[in-house]
Amino acid sequence: MAALNWDACDIVLVTGDAYVDHPSFGMAIIGRLLEAQGFRVGIIAQPDWHSAEPFKALGKPTLFFGVTGGNLDSMVNRYTADRRLRHDDAYTADGEGGRRPDRCTIVYTQRCREAYKDVPIVLGGIEASLRRIAHYDYWSDKVRRSILADAKADLLLYGNAERAVVEVANRLAAGEAPHELDSVRGVALFRRVPEHYTELPADDLDSADEAAARRPGETVIRLPAYDEVKDDKEAYARASRVLHREANPGNARPLVQRHGDRDLWLNPPPIPLTSDEMDAVYDLPYARAPHPSYGDAKIPAWDMIKFSVTIMRGCFGGCTFCSITEHEGRVIQNRSEGSILREIERIRDKTPGFTGVISDVGGPTANMYRMACKDPKIEAACRLPSCVFPDICPNLNTSHDDLIRLYRKVREVKGVKKVMVASGVRYDLAVRSPEYVKELVTHHVGGRLKIAPEHTERGPLDKMMKPGIGTYDRFKEMFDAAAKQAGKKYYLIPYFIAAHPGTTDEDMMHLALWLKKNDYRADQVQTFLPSPMATATAMYHTEINPLRGVRRGSSEPVEAIKGLRQRRLHKAFLRYHDPENWPLLREALREMGRADLIGPRPDQLVPLSQPPGTGLGAAGKGRGQPRPVHRTGGGQRFTTKGVPLKK
């Protein structure tokens, strides 16, 4: 500030991540974007939150504090799916854990308010975006208020907020107050419902839509109030269904939800960025490096992405366990070829350690680049949560031609030896383009390619909104044929989820048998983690399927896997080959009446005998040791052997 002759910053951004000036880090994008608009921007990264003093480091901002938890929700960042504390943090220098507080957006906001009580505070980023309404919080096992209420901030910007944050900054600079910014798309704030608005109830969506068609003027949908959704699971499921249904920027209506004596108002989502706007964001003058104050410290997240390029945002897959659509939207936002090629040249010229290998060209998925609805009018009117489930929509353009052309141009950049595709490939789209599969395998695979079938059984797949395993089999045939033709030994690495809502023990058993039959031995497996606002999280909490109509007494039930033993069992099925899991699997198979799967034959799942010194991990404590007691989601007490205790 002294070197720039600034007496104050206009905007001070506070982030839970180490500061890396690179477009894969949200704070860098927002900071550079506001700087390009002429604002004086300061950034405070990972401040000590135990007092307000570190939040005064850059003085009092003249316009506002911008607060974010970072690139991940702070609770997802800090705790495992089993609610165990992580001891590392990929977004911190040297991977050090504990450099941000739990629910850090709330804590940072409180400290900003203590530092300068009259400065407006604007929330943004993934933590704020996915907690914008009353939401189920897995770590406290309760429904929490909107983070805007808990943090006591002035505004919340959700989704891709580049356009919104520039408008907010300019209007605040022009003298408007935060409560006057109720026309900004993608903004949440507390306000009264204007008198000229017609309120539609969320009780019956179809009736509400019919009523809206008959009424003139503007409409707002009233979600069940916080006091209702925290105690009534059916009301919570209904609110989740409405929120996801009102996610299309082309037809979404404002939402309002009562919090105590105030109304939380959510404007419709942001209009997707055009290619020119995306190019402008990624062409900003990033230093493309961590801040020099970190010295030689390694920041794992930076090391992973420093040679990668984001070519698009958004995802129209709609997988219920994923939060990409809720944050980035389902309309794909693409960069131009020229912008992508310029960034690769900057990586080549400016990033230390570059050896000629681009580690990834992709985004939320590898192969949705420039895919869109064939008819803009249909796209603007559509309320379906996915363009590819239960089948690929006939209105979706699934051509991979633009992506193939991009791959070929990227490979021609001087100084580039190899271009990898490390983002997950949406294989149900890829099978429609044999040319793409051939191009991918021949030039862009480095031995292994990760894809995510997630399961083999129709029950959980339907709750995930994922294609059947038959589509995976077709892709594998094409992948193997292309690898053979290229003279390469390449392997697919499939990802699977344990304990997802709608999954039975029998489903996991059949998945384990499929894995063994196909000689897959997963080293790392994913247990379902109910992240804020995801549809699958609503299933987990309510045991109701919000993909169907949610009506009192006639909602579709969903089995939720909440007990610790059952969650461990589902994970153990994915690692059927690990001797540590065999005692738990034997016990479960006998309880399921499938003792025929215990034995030495290839078609059997686990052997009858146990190698010495193994089998103490997944089964709990060793023999003769006291077994801890835990509670299942239904409230009945079990030992870790699964035996009900007498009350």
Give a structural overview:
With 647 residues, the protein is α/β, with parallel strands linked by helices. It has 3 domains: 201 residues, 3-Layer(aba) Sandwich (Rossmann fold), CATH 3.40.50.2300; 81 residues; 271 residues, tm_1862 like domain (pyruvate-formate lyase- activating enzyme, Alpha-Beta Horseshoe), CATH 3.80.30.20. Helix content is 32%, strand content 15%. The strands form 9 sheets. Strands 3-1-4-5-8-9-13-12-11-10 form a 10-stranded mixed β-sheet, sandwiched between helices. The protein has a 3-stranded parallel β-sheet with strand order 23-24-25. Helix 7 links the parallel strand 10 and strand 11. The longest helix has 17 residues. The radius of gyration is 25 Å and the shape is globular. The relative contact order is 0.08. The C terminus is likely disordered.
**How widely separated are the two ends?**
66 Å
CATH topology label of the largest domain: pyruvate-formate lyase- activating enzyme
Largest sheet: 10 strands, mixed
CATH top level label of the largest domain = Alpha Beta
Mean pLDDT: 92
Q: How many DSSP E strands?
A: 27
- Note the overall shape: globular
If classified by CATH, what would the architecture of the largest domain be?
Answer: Alpha-Beta Horseshoe
